[in-house]
Amino acid sequence: MNAEKPPGSKQALVIIGMHRSGTSATTGALRCLGVDLGNRLYKGHEGINDKGYFEHSDLADANDEALSALGSSWDDILLRQENWWKREELIPFAARIRSHIRKDFANSSIWAVKDPRVCRLLPWWLEIFDSERISPRFIFVIRSPHAVFRSLERRDGFSMEKSFLLWSLHYLEAEQWSRNFPRAFVDFDRFIEHPAQELARVEETLGISFPISVENAAPCLNQFLSRDLRHHQERESPESSPVLSLTHALHQSLLGAVDSGQPDSLEMDALWNKMESIQSGFPRALVEHIRSSGSIQGNLQITMNRLMRSWSWYTGKPVRFLERLAGRNV
Length: 330
Known about the structure:
CATH topology: Rossmann fold
């Protein structure tokens, strides 16, 4: 599953991590260092990502639509089918992404893309990077699967088993496909405690120079980052299952890579094989139902994306705010 490094000259940082894993805080900190994120970013939601998602809205929308074309969605717990990134249905979305990259980052010395969906779409994105002669570098943001589960449970009502499956799939797939590229692994808890130290380590590990030095960015980092960004603390669960055991082992391997530089590839391959074994035990009817539901949910997500970016949505914000003050759930 390895991809060869493209002979690119442009630098792009790819932020890797599961939803609710601290990638927004990490990417916001990169903006303090002068890394270009583009101008069309999704805004945050109160109580969820107050300071912003730092996702390029056009790129995130294209990812959502690509997933929908695959009969999938952001919370799909199934492994992808073989050579899925070669499917013709994805061609127009790849063209859109290339267009946005050329338009928004042509003059950027270093830019970043942050969208957890990229973890599940990485071989497709690697072909896009290769066609644009872009050399990607990867920043893996590692947050406890328990903390991610607590956040997803609160926001989406997910079970621990589903949250852990998603957590593992995001990191396993991204790790497999990024092996031939420069990578840095960041423990989110350590990053929140010592952001300057961790960003300096990332800079050295990836062999890059941020447009603004970590030292000069300190005031921005101190203003942006705070311990309250770590909304959910880790709490171990007495529950046990093949999925939970796999996720715990994967978490430890990735944390080890923070200090060692890279995870053990043989260990990661063994965990990948365990994931395949777990999924091979899914009943066929369940798999068919998940794929059917994923397509429906993906289309709903695309509709919501378009609605929330429409003028009617923006102009209606004051009315919705007043109605909420009046006690109406809108």
